[in-house]
Design goal:
The chain has 206 residues and is of the alpha/beta class. It has seven helices and six strands; from the N terminus they run αββαβββααααβα.
Amino acid sequence: MTDTLQASRHATGGAEISPPLVSLRINGSVHTLAIGPEVTLLDALREHLGLTGSKKGCGLGQCGACTVLMDGMRVNSCLVLAVRAEHRDITTIEGLVRDDGTLHPVQQAFIDHDAFQCGYCTPGQIMSAVALIEEGRAADEAELRRHMSGNLCRCGAHANIIAAIRQAAEQIARSPEAARTVTPEAARTVTPEAARNTTAQAGAAP
C-alpha cells in the first residue's frame, strides 16, 4: 500500500479513496488516468501509458534523458507532476514519427551522423534538439552547444550530436513542413493498450 493511499484511508476513517482522474493530451491523443497527485509526468508516460521512449536517468532533472515537449517547450518530465500537465500539449519521442512511418528530420539526422552509441540519452537529445530548432537557436554552433548542455551523453557522442542537429536545422529551414508533428486539433481518446502499441511501432525500447 502506498503512503498516499495509507494517508487517504487514515483521513477518511479507513475508507479507501480512488485516485483522481487526470486527462493528459499526449502526441495529439487524450488519455484519462486514475493516478495520485505524486505521480510525475515521466512515470505517467512510462508506467501507466507504456510510452517508454522517455528515459529514467538521474530523476533530478540533471541529465535530460526524460526530456519531452510541453506546449512546444522542452521540460524534464521527471520534475513535472502529471496533474500539472493537464490541458497542456505533450509531445514525446513517439509523437515525432509521422503516420506513414517517416522519421522527423532530427531523428533521421541522428541516424545519418551515428549520433548515439548506447542510445539511452538519444530520445532526450532529440526532443531538446527539436525544441531548439523551433526556437531558432540552432544556427550558431556555440549557442547550440550551450543550450544542449543540459542533455548529457556519457558515451561522448556530442560532436556527432551537434552535427546531426545542424543538418536537421538546415533541412527544416528549407522545408518547414518536414518538421510537422501532431496537432491538438487531431486529438483523440486512446486506451493505454493502444499507447503501448504505438511505442512498439516507434521503436522506443524500454
